[in-house]
Design goal:
This protein has about 650 residues and is an alpha/beta fold. It has 20 helices and 15 strands. The protein folds into three domains: about 140 residues, 2-Layer Sandwich (Chitobiase, domain 2); about 290 residues, TIM Barrel, CATH 3.20.20; about 130 residues, Methane Monooxygenase Hydroxylase, Chain G, domain 1 (Up-down Bundle), CATH 1.20.58.
């Protein structure tokens, strides 16, 4: 055989073998799962789920869990789903075994795949591998909550239509994970709350606290009964939360008017809680925040508790909390749960108030907002100091991304959830994020806070931020990129003061600073390249709103973000005109002045856009990449000489 023919034959044979190997063993990549599991590893090539699946469940799994599993399989291309109580002797296609660690089929399937059963509350194991006739997948929960969270992970694993051969051992780092609707301003609608509870479930959060400051029946009229129509609406939310393994916690704020030593007021509080107990609520919350605690609301308290002051207030609140918790425990046993937020809810400075409040029953959760109302960061050292100050691990009330204070006026707060130190799970009982008046945009930050509370040591703020964008974009790449552009211009996160704890538009600022530097110090070629980058950036800003409107299916996100998207489009066009003006100036063209005038007019239009009336406290003009984009547009005409000819 001539050598050239031999070589060609060898190459063709090798290519065929490689192609055959690729077909038999498709490349498998480690999937992205959020929250990040505690332990996840690939154990083989990707599995074909096929069109026929048998779900094996020896126990009665709850409907929401079963619906999640069926939905994930159907979305992955399965069209026939059968059920069985035990592992079939000769399975056809994929077998999915679900249940808790007590289930015999679950224990057998976990053993067959070489895994271990979960042993922590809300924990789960998810394992998958090939069999002679298809694939075996097992979802093992330590309890019903753990099984539900395993189903949420399965939903993510099957998004690409296949199933990785994988072993996942997972459990939450913190017992309480979720949000507290605790802001001032217009409360969320019932529809918003329903959407939010579904979102919380999808990110393995387990708590929603109903505590809108502007609900009159929870604060100013706390002694009065809710209208029956409102109770009926709330019952729908309570039922939904229970189905999706989210604890609905009812909060009341009696502090502005309560008479602690009046039995009638104590009875009124019990009566209010009893109405929610009748709806199935077992978790309650008493808010003592944002009240005057150096005076009494009634003379009866002076007679019973002495002169008003910090220590007297702490004792009064501790006694009331203990009375209510004892009553709840007598009613509901191990299911009873009580949380409080103290009047001194931030810092860890020792005080007569905190010393008195330490008399609260150790089983009652006490909230703390960090080293300030809106802290720039939270360290494990801070949390350890809080543990000492309050006499227990605190439950973090994280005032991010809430935007109901002056410094946040006109802003959506959409920077990543960051500057919370890994290891906080050792010192906190959980994290409840206080969201914005805008429910759907709040999910960007809450996605991160839930992921951190689940696995603080495995948390990556930037990856979680991008994953939140993919979630909103339904994994569409162009929409995800547009959302990241939007998130960047709404990146500034303020505190109570002039200095933000997260800066304004860091990605855009780096680009604009680079353009300014190139124009100042670069060669002619470098200036042209910089202006090309500027045009591309401006085009991205101008087109992002339309891409988001077309690609984000969540109508609430589009509606609640509307004025910010409108402003972004105008600012993008202003930057396009600025880029054209700089290019014209670079070429010595007198047209530059007209472009700069157009940019100024568009910027003025953008700055005139206001927040949606009656939805935000405080109201005001929309702020977007302020101090970055507005400054560049206004200073651009001075970066190059503009011809007057």
């Amino acid at each position: 055989m001539p050598q050239t023919i031999f070589c060609r034959t060898l190459l063709l044979t090798t290519a065929a073998l490689l192609a055959g190997t690729a077909q038999a063993s498709p490349v498998s990549s480690l999937p992205s799962v959020f929250p990040q599991p505690v332990a996840m590893k690939l154990t083989g090539p990707a599995l074909e789920i096929g069109r026929e699946v048998t779900i094996v469940s020896a126990e009665q799994a709850d409907p929401a869990t079963v619906a999640l599993i069926r939905g994930a399989l159907t979305a992955a291309g399965v069209d026939t789903i059968q059920t069985a109580r035990s592992l079939p002797a000769k399975p056809r296609g994929t077998v999915v075994v679900i249940g808790t660690s007590k289930s015999a089929p679950v224990r057998s399937a976990v053993s067959r795949l070489g895994g271990t059963l979960p042993d922590q509350r809300e924990g789960y194991a998810l394992l998958s591998g090939a069999t002679d006739n298809g694939a075996l997948v097992v979802l093992a929960g330590q309890d019903a909550d753990g099984l539900y969270f395993a189903a949420q992970t399965l939903r993510q694993l099957t998004e690409r239509g296949t199933m990785p051969a994988v072993t996942i051992q997972d459990r939450p780092a913190m017992a309480i994970r979720g949000t507290i609707e605790g802001f001032y301003g217009a409360p969320w609608s019932m529809h918003d709350r329903a959407q939010h509870i579904g979102f919380l479930a999808s990110v393995k959060a387990n708590t929603y606290v109903y505590s809108p400051k502007d609900d009159p029946f929870a604060r100013d009229k706390w002694r009065e009964d809710y209208p029956q129509a409102t109770l009926n609406e709330l019952k729908g939310l309570i039922d939904q939360a229970r189905a999706h393994h989210v604890r609905f916690t009812y909060a009341i704020s009696p502090g502005p008017s309560i008479c602690y030593s009046n039995p009638d007021d104590v009875q009124a509080l019990k009566r209010k809680f009893e109405a929610f107990r009748a709806l199935g609520v077992r978790s309650f919350y008493i808010a003592f925040d944002d009240i005057e605690y150096t005076k009494w609301n009634c003379d009866q308290d002076r007679a019973a508790l002495g002169e008003p002051g910090e220590r007297a207030a702490g004792l009064a609140q501790a006694q009331l909390s203990n009375t209510i918790y004892s009553w709840l425990k007598a009613k509901d046993g191990a299911e009873a749960e009580l949380m409080i937020v103290p009047t001194e809810y931030f810092n860890t400075t020792e005080s007569p108030y905190k010393a008195a409040l330490r008399q609260v029953d150790p089983a009652v959760y006490v909230q703390w907002t960090g080293t300030d109302v809106v802290p720039p960061a939270i360290s494990t050292g801070d949390a350890k100091a809080a543990t000492k100050a309050f006499g227990r691990k605190t439950l973090l009330w994280d005032n991010y991304p809430v935007n109901d204070y002056g410094e946040s006026s006109g802003r959506l707060l959409m920077a990543p959830y960051a500057k919370r130190e890994a290891g906080l799970s050792d010192e906190l009982s959980g994290i409840l994020a206080n969201p914005m008046n805008q429910e759907a945009p709040s999910r960007v930050a809450v996605f991160g806070s839930a992921a951190f509370a689940w696995n603080d040591r495995g948390y990556d703020a930037d990856r979680a931020w991008k994953a939140a964008a993919r979630m909103l974009a339904s994994n569409d790449a162009a929409t995800t990129a547009a959302l990241m552009t939007f998130f960047d211009v709404e990146h500034l996160a303020p505190m109570f003061g002039s200095q933000p704890w997260q800066p304004s538009a860091p990605r855009l600022k780096a680009t604009l600073d680079g353009v300014a530097d190139s124009l100042a110090h670069g060669s002619a070629e470098q200036r042209r390249d910089a202006l090309a980058r500027l045009k591309a950036t401006a085009d991205d800003l101008a087109s992002a709103p339309d891409t988001i409107r077309a690609g984000v299916s969540d109508a609430g996100f589009i509606a609640q973000s509307k004025p910010w998207l409108d402003a972004l489009q105008l600012w993008g066009r202003a930057l396009q005109a600025t880029a054209s003006g700089l290019s014209a100036a670079e070429q010595g063209s007198p047209r530059a002045r007209a472009f700069f005038a157009q940019a100024e007019a568009l910027a003025t239009q953008a700055e005139a856009i206001q927040t949606i009336p009656n939805t935000t406290r405080p109201q005001g003009p929309i702020k977007l990449a302020d101090g970055v984009l507005d400054r560049f547009v206004r200073e651009a005409p001075s970066l190059l000489y503009v011809s007057r000819d």
